[in-house]
Specification:
243 residues; 2 domains
Length: 243
């Protein structure tokens, strides 16, 4: 979309209306470092301090090639606030935001499921230790009963040794059980945090609307991006030819 040498006689380049030239230079400088996405987001920014690319009054453009005037019209058509292109871009931005939010929901849901698995593993370990602890206590009780029964004969030394070993086993299992139970409580706490995070992400997702018309908006925005880039390049080339 470069300007052809025969687009306008050379001497006419020197008589471009100063107001037209100032407007073109202002617009090119405003867009100089802006991608299409940057320009759209700038125009969609409705904050109090938001700037408008077209805040400078456009004069009647005279003394420029037709392609230059057409490029100006194209940029205003695409980027003027309230334009169909900006509205489509905003809808596409909302759709992209929803896609990203859906991914956050899936990620946090997976985290909850993972922690659920850890809870099950820890509870299995706790139940296994609990069963061994009960068995150790049963063994100790049986030894106590045997010692009581054998006390009359006085032959309790070997039983007392077994009892001591049973008590040590019980103490070790009790310590293991308490440590495992603390781990269960910690994992449950993490699960609560993960579940809250998941629920927050779901609430955020529900606040983002599902918009129809994706293919139409995608086509409109894609076409506008190409036209934007061509128009900015053409205006930049036009300014270069003025020096």
């Amino acid at each position: 979309m470069a300007i052809g040498a025969d687009e306008l006689p050379f001497h006419d380049w020197q008589v471009v209306d100063p107001a037209s030239m100032a407007y073109i230079r202002h617009l090119v400088e405003s867009l100089e470092h802006l991608t299409f996405d940057d320009a759209c987001m700038l125009q969609l920014d409705g904050g109090e301090n938001a700037s408008d690319l077209f805040n400078l009054h456009r004069p009647v453009i005279t003394g420029v090639p037709h392609d230059v005037a057409s490029a100006l019209n194209t940029l205003e058509e695409i980027l003027s606030r309230g334009s169909p292109t900006l509205e489509a871009y905003q809808r596409e931005d909302i759709r992209e935001t929803r896609v990203l939010q859906e991914e956050k929901v899936r990620t946090t849901m997976a985290e909850v499921h993972y922690i659920d698995g850890l809870v099950d593993e820890h509870m299995d370990a706790v139940e296994g230790t609990r069963a061994r602890l009960h068995a150790a206590r049963d063994t100790k009780q049986q030894l106590l009963e045997k010692i009581t029964a054998a006390a009359a004969d006085g032959d309790v030394a070997s039983l007392e040794l077994e009892l001591s070993e049973a008590e040590e086993s019980e103490a070790a299992l009790l310590a293991e059980f308490m440590n495992q139970w603390q781990s269960v409580l910690a994992v449950h706490k993490h699960r609560g945090v993960a579940k809250n995070r998941f629920e927050d992400e779901v609430v955020a997702l529900m606040a983002i609307p599902q918009l129809p018309g994706h293919s139409e908006d995608q086509h409109l925005v894609g076409d506008a991006e190409e036209r934007y880039e061509d128009s900015v390049l053409l205006l930049d080339e036009f300014l270069d030819m003025q020096y």
